[in-house]
Design goal:
Number of helices: 6
Distance between the termini: 15 Å
Helix content: over 70%
Order of helices and strands: HHHHHH
Low-confidence stretches: 17-24
Shape: rod-shaped
Number of strands: 0
Structural class: mainly alpha
Oligomer: single chain
Length: about 230
Amino acid sequence: MSEAISNIEIAHKIHEQGHHHGAPPDGRALWAEIAEAILLAVVAVATAWTGYEAAKWGALSDQNYTLASRTTVMSQQKATLAGQDRLYVIITFNGWALGRTAGNEKLTAFYERRFRPEYAIAFQAWKALDPLHNSTAPPGPIFMPEYKNANAQESVSLAEQANDYFAKGVSTRETGDEYVKVTVFLATVLLLTAISQRFSIFGPRVAVLAVAFVLLAVSAFWIIRLPRA
């Protein structure tokens, strides 16, 4: 918003200075002053609008970056829990395998009761393949399609959300930069208006004003096509 406020102050000063020409203007000079006044009024409003939009898009970008960072932390936490879950099921399965090879049914039953619920489903599916005699069976229940790790799945989902938030942060930041660029063009319009008021010859004054109006038209086109926050 600082660029917008600065441009509006400049526009006000230019308008004041433009009325200190001393001699009363002729007809053509009067029309030029009217055009300059209209130009300054439009630029002041447009500058305020672009500054407002740039600030809002910048705030949205910061918000998306914050959400991306927070979601990434949550994803990493779930990934850590998923690793702990995997370590737990490996330890319990190893205990079950030792009990099974030793023929200790009591020990194998003890470990089976301590399988995690999602692992128990995969274990029963793996056990149904008769893995002790079926060489084509997967090496363990964690390799079965029935095995689902809720924490791992949630970690992946959160990571995707974090990527989406980051992409939105980049996009909104770029939109805010586009509005800042328009503000720079509007500042150039103000500069040209100030220069035109220094010409006492009508031709150069109109030429500079024409360039200013072209830049204003380009700026207006960009403002219209840019999204609103």
